[in-house]
C-alpha cells in the first residue's frame, strides 16, 4: 500500500470518526462561587491555624511561668531537706532521709500531698538517690527507669523543654541543680490539657470554616445568578436573532434587549447596550441591502425596458429594409437615430454604475461661469421656443468650485434639458451662479413652468423616473427626444461624488434646482 493511499485512508478514517463535542464548562456563577468559597476557606483555615498557634504559645508561656514558680519553691524545699538529711546522716550513717509515713515510696515527697495538680511531674535526685512520679487521676504514679533517664537528659539551664514519656505522654519540664551541687531537680506539667484545648479549638474552627464557606458559596451563587440573570436575557435575545432567516425577502424588525436588562453603569447593561447598537446597525445594513437589491432589480428591469424600445425599432427597420418595404434612407436614418438614443442611454447607465461602485470623480478647481454661459447657449439653440436668461452675481474673483469640468457640463446639460423637455414652449428658464456662503457656490436652474406633481417629488432623483404628462416631453413631439428618466439621477450622483448636494423647490409657479458645490479658497 503506497504512502499516498495510506494518507488518504487515514484522512478518511479521521473524517468518518465521530466528532466529540467539547466538554461544556461549568457556569460562570458556579465557578465564581467555587472560587470565592475556596478563598474564604483558605482564609478561615489560616485564621484558625494562626489563632491555634497563638493560643498554644500563650498556654505554653503560662505553663512555663507556673513551672518556674514551682521550681523556685521546690528548690528551696529540697535544699532544706538536703541540709537536714546531711545532719541526720552524720548521726545514722545515711545520706538520704527515708520517706515519712505520709509519703508514697519511690516518689518525691510532697507530690502526693494537698495542692498537687493533675499532670504534675517531679524528679528529685539527691546523692545518687532518685525519686520520680506523676499525678494521674489524682494518684501519684512512680516513673520507671526509662522515663527517669528521659528526665535526667533534660538540660539544667532553667529553660522549659518539651519531652515525651512512653507511657505518660508529653510534658513541659524544667530542670535545675540546687545550690549545694549534689541535688538535681526536674519538675514538669502534662501537655494533655493544652493539646486537648488546641485540638478542640482547631476542630471547632475548621468546622465553622467549612460551614461559613458553604454558606458563602450558596449565598454567593444565588446572588450571582440574580445579578447575571439580565445577561442570560441578553444571550437569549442574541440566540433568537441568530435563529432568524436573514435571507428571506421580508425582513421583520429585530428583537431588542429589554430596558430592564440595560441598567446604566453595569457591565451587563453595557453588554446589552452594545448588543442593541449592533442589532440596529445590522438591521439598518440588511434593510439597506434589501433596498439596494430592489433598486438593482428595478434598475435592470427599467434598463431592459428602455433598451427594448430602440432595439425593437432597429430590428423592425432592418426587417423592412431587407424586404424593400421602406426607403433605405429613411430606414438608415431611423436606425441611426435609435442607435444614438441607445448609446446615450448605455453611457448614462455606465456613468451611474461607475459612481455607484465608488469611483469618485477627481475634483479640481473649476470656474463655473464659462460653463454656465456655454450651457445656456447650447440650450437656446436646442430650444428656441423657450426664454433663456442668465442670473450671475457680481461674484468676487474667487468663484472657483471643486469639481470636474466634464461632469459639471453634464450636470448643467441635464438640468437645462429637463427644463426644456418637461415645460411647454414660452417657459422662462433662468440659470444662475451665486456665492451662497463663504464656503459654497450655488448653480441654479429655475423655470416658471407648471411644477412637478406631488406624487413625483419624493422620487424625482430616482432612476428612470419621468415627469408627468402635464410637463410636455417635447415641443415638437418627434420621436427620440423623450427623456430616459436618468438625467436628474446623474445630477444627484455627480453632485454627491464632488462633495456637494442637490436641492429642489417646486410649486405651481415653477421649479428650481440648486446644485451646491464646495468653494475653493484661494490663499
Please explain how this structure is put together.
With 523 residues, the protein is α+β, with helices and mostly antiparallel strands. Among the domains are: 244-359; 361-518, Histidine kinase-like ATPase, C-terminal domain (Heat Shock Protein 90), CATH 3.30.565.10. 52% of the residues lie in helices and 17% in strands. It contains ten helices and 13 strands. It has helices spanning 3-16, 28-92, 145-152, 192-242, 267-322, 328-356, 368-382, 405-421, 454-457, 487-497, and strands spanning 120-126, 129-136, 139-142, 160-165, 169-177, 183-190, 364-366, 387-392, 401-403, 428-437, 440-447, 501-507, 510-518. A six-stranded antiparallel β-sheet has the order 3-2-1-6-5-4, sandwiched between helices. Strands 8-10-11-13-12 form a five-stranded mixed β-sheet, covered by helices on one side. Strands 7-9 form a two-stranded antiparallel sheet. Strand 10 and strand 11 form a beta hairpin. Helix 4 runs parallel beside helix 5 (267-322) and helix 5 (267-322) packs antiparallel against helix 6 (328-356).
Amino acid at each position: 500500500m503506497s504512502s499516498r493511499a495510506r494518507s488518504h485512508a487515514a484522512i478518511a478514517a479521521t473524517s468518518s470518526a465521530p466528532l466529540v463535542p467539547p466538554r461544556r464548562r461549568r457556569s460562570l456563577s458556579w465557578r465564581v462561587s467555587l472560587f470565592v468559597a475556596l478563598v474564604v476557606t483558605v482564609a478561615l483555615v489560616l485564621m484558625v491555624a494562626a489563632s491555634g498557634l497563638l493560643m498554644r504559645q500563650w498556654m505554653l508561656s503560662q505553663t512555663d511561668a507556673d513551672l518556674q514558680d514551682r521550681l523556685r519553691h521546690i528548690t528551696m524545699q529540697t535544699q532544706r531537706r538536703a541540709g537536714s538529711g546531711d545532719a541526720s546522716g552524720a548521726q545514722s550513717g545515711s545520706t538520704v532521709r527515708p520517706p515519712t509515713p505520709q509519703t508514697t515510696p519511690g516518689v518525691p515527697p510532697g507530690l502526693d500531698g494537698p495542692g498537687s495538680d493533675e499532670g504534675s511531674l517531679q524528679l528529685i535526685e539527691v546523692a545518687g538517690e532518685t525519686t520520680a512520679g506523676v499525678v494521674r487521676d489524682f494518684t501519684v504514679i512512680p516513673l520507671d527507669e526509662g522515663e527517669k533517664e528521659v528526665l535526667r537528659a533534660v538540660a539544667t539551664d532553667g529553660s522549659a523543654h518539651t519531652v515525651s514519656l512512653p507511657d505518660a505522654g508529653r510534658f513541659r519540664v524544667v530542670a535545675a541543680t540546687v545550690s549545694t551541687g549534689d541535688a538535681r531537680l526536674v519538675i514538669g506539667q502534662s501537655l494533655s490539657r493544652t493539646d486537648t484545648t488546641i485540638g478542640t479549638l482547631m476542630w471547632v474552627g475548621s468546622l465553622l470554616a467549612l460551614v461559613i464557606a458553604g454558606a458563602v458559596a450558596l449565598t454567593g451563587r444565588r446572588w450571582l445568578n440574580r445579578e447575571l440573570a439580565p445577561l442570560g436575557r441578553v444571550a437569549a435575545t442574541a440566540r433568537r436573532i441568530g435563529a432568524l432567516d436573514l435571507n428571506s425577502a421580508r425582513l421583520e424588525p429585530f428583537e431588542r434587549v429589554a430596558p430592564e436588562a440595560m441598567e446604566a453603569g453595569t457591565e451587563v447593561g453595557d453588554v446589552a447596550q452594545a448588543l442593541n447598537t449592533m442589532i440596529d446597525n445590522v438591521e439598518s445594513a440588511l434593510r439597506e441591502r434589501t433596498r439596494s437589491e430592489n433598486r438593482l432589480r428595478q434598475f435592470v428591469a427599467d434598463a431592459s425596458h428602455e433598451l427594448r424600445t430602440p432595439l425593437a425599432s432597429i430590428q423592425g427597420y432592418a426587417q423592412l429594409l431587407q424586404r424593400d418595404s421602406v426607403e433605405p434612407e429613411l430606414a438608415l436614418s431611423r436606425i441611426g437615430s435609435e442607435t444614438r438614443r441607445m448609446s446615450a442611454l448605455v453611457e448614462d447607465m455606465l456613468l451611474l454604475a461607475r459612481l455607484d461602485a465608488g469611483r469618485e470623480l477627481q475634483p479640481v478647481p473649476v470656474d463655473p461661469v464659462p460653463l454656465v454661459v456655454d450651457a445656456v447657449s447650447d440650450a437656446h439653440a436646442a430650444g428656441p421656443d423657450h426664454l433663456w436668461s442668465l442670473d450671475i452675481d457680481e461674484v468676487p474673483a474667487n468663484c472657483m468650485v471643486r469639481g470636474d469640468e466634464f461632469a459639471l457640463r453634464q450636470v448643467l446639460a441635464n438640468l437645462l434639458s429637463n427644463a426644456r423637455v418637461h415645460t411647454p414652449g414660452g417657459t422662462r428658464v433662468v440659470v444662475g451662479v451665486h456665492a451662497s456662503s463663504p464656503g459654497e457656490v450655488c448653480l441654479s436652474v429655475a423655470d416658471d413652468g407648471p411644477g412637478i406633481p406631488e406624487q413625483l417629488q419624493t422620487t424625482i432623483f430616482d432612476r428612470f423616473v419621468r415627469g408627468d404628462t402635464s410637463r410636455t416631453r417635447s415641443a415638437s413631439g418627434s420621436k427620440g427626444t423623450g427623456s430616459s428618466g436618468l438625467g436628474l439621477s446623474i445630477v444627484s450622483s455627480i453632485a454627491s461624488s464632488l462633495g456637494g448636494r442637490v436641492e429642489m423647490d417646486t410649486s405651481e409657479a415653477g421649479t428650481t434646482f440648486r446644485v451646491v458645490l464646495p468653494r475653493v479658497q484661494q490663499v
